[in-house]
Amino acid sequence: MSVAQEQGTAETKIEMTSMIDVTFLLLIFFMCTIKFKILEGKLQTYLPKDVGVNTTPASPMMEKVDIRIYRMVTRDKLNLDDRDTFKEWRTKGWTEDQVEIYYQGNPISGLKELARELKDLRKKIPPPDDPGPDNEDSLKMNLEAMAGCIYEDIVHVVDVALDAKFTSITFRGIELDA
Amino acid sequence: MSKARDEMMAGVDLNMTPMIDIVFQLIIFFMIVIDMSQKDLEALELPKSLKAIEDEAEEGRLYVNINRGGDYILRLQKLSLNELEVQLKLRVDAPMKDGSRTRDAQDLAVRPILIRADRASEFKHVQKIMYVCGKEGIKIWKVNLAAAQEAKDDEAAPAPK
Question: How far apart are CA B94 and CA B89, in angstroms?
Answer without folding.
Answer: 9
